[in-house]
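Readers outside the structure-tokenisation community will struggle with the description of the input data as it stands. Showing the layout once, in full, would remove most of the difficulty. For illustration, here is how one protein appears when written out as sequence plus structure tokens:
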Amino acid sequence: MQLNRQLVQNKSNIVSLQLWIWLSVLLLIFFSLLPMDGFPRSIIYTLVNTLFYAIIIYGNILFLYPTFYQKGQTSLYILLAILFIVFTGIARGFITLTLYNQFVVLPTPRDTGLLTLLGYIPGGILTFVLSLIFRIAIAYFTLKQQTEEILIQKSQTELALLKSQVQPHFLFNTLNNIYYEAYREAPRTAGLIERLSEIMRYFVDESPKDTVAITTEVQFIDNYIALEKIRIRHEVLINFEKKFNPDLRIPPMLLMTFVENIVKHGIDKSSTQNQIDIALEQQDGYLLFMTRNKVFDTTPVHRSTGFGIANLTKRLTMLYGSNFELTIDKQNGLFTAFLKIPLV
């Protein structure tokens, strides 16, 4: 709500500034002409010329400039700008002289021939140049407004983050208290509570970061698997090979899609023959991650086309462009997922 009020106020300030500028132009032109031309001529000249100044300036900055120049059509922009200046100059001269002849008593009516009207074009050229300066000024104030909006949003985000951290930290403290109580009666349950606490802390503290320590990511995967195994009736044999430098850092939650797929689709809860192979290896400047599990009759045929894989592919493209390898293969009764990413 506060942000919206600030945005409305900023836009109102820009509009007010423009109104004050045009009012100043009107008064400046009028009082500069009044001593020599008198009141009627000064009014006519001031109103007509200010109107055409506005047409030239706003016609350029609101239509010609964004429609053609900003889209790379420079030649067309120059051609249309010339035609626009010529047309407005002739129109300004014709209207000014016609009003002079109509409302101002002159010994000889002003000539409205083409040569006379062409004499009004140079003034339009100067106004057009001023419109470019005006365009730069608007861009400056717009950039300033956007900067203020970003700062306001940043402040509100930081405030919301501080508020959001209160409840998770309260929950972590509560889980720790439950852990110590459970440790006396049921050590295994206490261990699971500890893993849950670590998972939640990962989501709150680590997942918003651009990169996390690979050991933190692996610990998160281990905790996730341990908690998921609670729901499985029979024991699951999991081989998790790890060969990497513990100092490595990778984007968070990058490997979890495969692990989640294994838990959801690669385990038969009624079978005693569940085996999962996971390998994470550093090799020649790349990180290799592979998961393999047996395909059961209940495994969805089109599992690899789910939103998880699609979203992961989009994220990998954003992070690494085309410099990654992602393959999913199903053959000989085994489902294999392989990911290869560069180490920066």
Notes: The CA atoms of residues 307 and 313 lie 10 Å apart. Residues 301-305 have pLDDT under 50 and may be disordered. Helices lie at 2-69, 74-103, 114-118, 121-185, 187-206, 214-228, 256-265, 307-320. Strands lie at 212-213, 237-243, 249-250, 275-283, 286-294, 325-331, 334-342.
